[in-house]
Specification:
The structure is a single chain. By secondary structure, the protein is of the alpha+beta class. The protein has 29 helices and 27 strands. The strands form five sheets. Strands 18, 19, 20, 21, 22, 23, 24, 25, 26 and 27 form a ten-stranded mixed β-sheet that branches. Strands 6, 7, 8, 9, 10, 11, 12, 13 and 14 form a nine-stranded mixed β-sheet that branches. A four-stranded antiparallel β-sheet has the order 5-16-1-17. α15 runs antiparallel to α27. The protein is elongated and about 100 Å long. The two termini are 29 Å apart.
Length: 854
Amino acid sequence: MLRLALVTLRARKGAFAASFVALMLAAAVISGCGVLLESGLRSALPPERYEKAALVVAGGQKAEVDVRSADGSTSRSSQPLPERLRLPASLGDDLAALDGIASVVADRGATVRLLDGDRAVTGRNGSSPQIHNWDGLPLGGFRLAAGHQPRGAQEVVLDSDLAARSGLKVGSSVRLMTASAPVTFEVAGLVTLGGGRTPRQSVLFAADAAIDRLVPATAGEVDAFGLVTTPGTSPASATAVIERTLMGKPGTVYAGDDRGRAEFTDIAVGAANVVDLATAISGNVLLVAVFVLCATTSLAIRHRRRELALLRAIGTTPRQMHGMITSESAAAGLAAGILGCPLGVGVASWLSAQFVGWGIVPPDFRPVIGPLPFLIAVASTIVTAVAAAFVASRRAARIRPTEALGETAAEPTRLGRGRTITGGVLLTLSGAVFGLGMSYRADSLTLVGLASSLVLLLAITAAVLGPLLTRTAIRLLAPLLNRTGVTGWLAVLNSRTGTVRMAGAITPLILAVSFAATVVFTQTTQLSQSADEVHAGTVADHVLTAPPGVSPQLAHDISELRGVKAATGVVRTKAVGVSSLGGDQKTVSLNAQGMQPRALADTLDLDVRQGELSALSRETVALSTTAASSLGLDVGDQAHLRLGDGTAFDGKVIAVYGRGLGFADLTFDHDLLLAHTTDRVDQSVLVRSASGATGLGRQLSALAQEYPGTTVADTLAADEQVEAQRAMAWVNYVVVGVIIAYTAITIVNTQAMNTAARRREFALLRLTGTNRSQVLGMMRRESLTVVAVGAVLGVLLSVPPLVLVATALTGGPLPTIPVWGWLAILGSTAVLTVAGAVLPTRLMLRARPVDDMA
């Protein structure tokens, strides 16, 4: 069978072109996402400031929580943490007393802004510089290259690269900012990294007194402890001793290249994002690939009816037929997988560049190229090809020889009983899913996920019932086509006799339109609703913001101005909770904001549904309706959360509000949340003026000048407020783009296959008097029929999922659908569908009809 399969592949290259291209593109995307997935899992950078420490003890960058499954079993679930967990300085004494530990050095630091006038000088990779205590210098590879070590609270040392960027030298004055007004220091010296390397992160060093001057709130806390072991003590044995000491205390032990994760906290968060996104994209592509390949392979087998009928007539058994077809598909899958893997490297590079551009991963993120993703991609394409061939060849292999020879004359006119029953079951199931979603309105996260599943279920239903839907559509369009003359009459006649063939072309078109419309318009609805909530919920008259954050002192200073009714800083981060759906628990990361309770009601209207926001304190929390539903909490319940640095929070739910999309899912006391962020800065300051107050804008502008980079506006900028949502929307657009590109090529291939199989039909038409222009006109009308049917069905199938999405996000059934979205989706698929049929027709019409008949 394998030998026969290879001979068949060589003889029918065109028939397998569509499946081969689809498999190759699937292999490219899967291998590219596999490279990103491996890169995220292996994203450890060698340490720089900790490279001479045998071990590092620092806060963990993920929250791990025990969760229960529906069957009662428990497991550990984790979420990355965006903030650094600082450790108490007293922990260093406990670590120094352990056997095998020669010395313990505390490392303390903060993010700073280095000012050149009012402009901030960025460090390496576009990030802000970090300042650390001089006592921690021996832990890393930095050495003093010029000047002297910093003394007292007035001096700092810069790395040479940062000094060159800012035009500073020994003896220069430099202004630094953290969560305060600018502070002036003198450059005491310059340091360089051993081996002539340029540090990944620009760094300054200073005495503890200088750091206290910049960030007094971190006194008594350290970022990490660097440990030097005694001679003969292995890192593994020392790690075991330290972990026993840390039982019940904050802190994680890092060794080897993992020390870089303790130094560069952005790596852990970026790696987790890459793993999630790569998994989502590859999963969607693989699912669509199976769906598309089943349709394409089925069409290819249908075009081989004469050949397969003859094989059955001469005694080929169903098992041999299965073996031949699956062997053909396996060979095609192997070749396509091997050729698609090099393209996967380009896919990984392009996706990683886009992730960097949207701030999802650090600027210096680079894909890690290893053999495992490519092996998995090749195996996946082979399994997908064989599975699609097995499903598509079942009827061809089971049919009796006499029936097979009879079927070569014409396509079946009715759906089989099994296919009809399957379609009915799927349609009923789709209705049940939609009804379940409409009755479960509270949790938008669940409903959006349900909508994604529903659109795929409806697309599969349309594929199963494709010939029936196509026949019905042609019956409706026939009067219109008949009015266009003989070419329209021919198009109707061919469409009626080739409904199965036409259904094969319509199926990928339905998938492309329905899937793209659902994903794209889900994002546009969410962004539009978020912007509306920001505009409707902002009660403040003035908003002060700065790109790296605003000093908390600014809100205090503003509150003392004449004419100010209320002022509050707004700190934003994330928190981790445990959601439950159907008995299965999982950790979820939720947006969190912190505000001064006494100023909250005067600056924001969060649309409170239950409870009172006036009860907000350090021991309470308010939830959005989405968070309340996801976490299964109500007013009066106790919420068990992890703050942005992993600190456990147990507090009473005092209110549930409606405008969570525009602001945040969780609202905490400002000072509580601020203390658990890395930089200890506000994102913005909201100001409400007193009745009849005048000149407040001028006072705010004058005060903002004391904090360089701070701007004053009349309202919150919706785009900045939902920046994270815009980034995730872009990721979903990427997924849609990949799916549309994939299905678009399939549409072209399917149309080309259908057209190429009609060579004898075109020749017979020409021999009986039909001219070239009439044949082309017939094909244009048939293609437009495919476009009309596929587009209309795709739009109709996207309606139920979008109703679910709109109901979840806006409370009403109408989603936000921009005109450009429909034009892009329908226009691109229409052009490709028509081109896929008309261009092959033009090529075939160049040959003589007699030659084609032969």
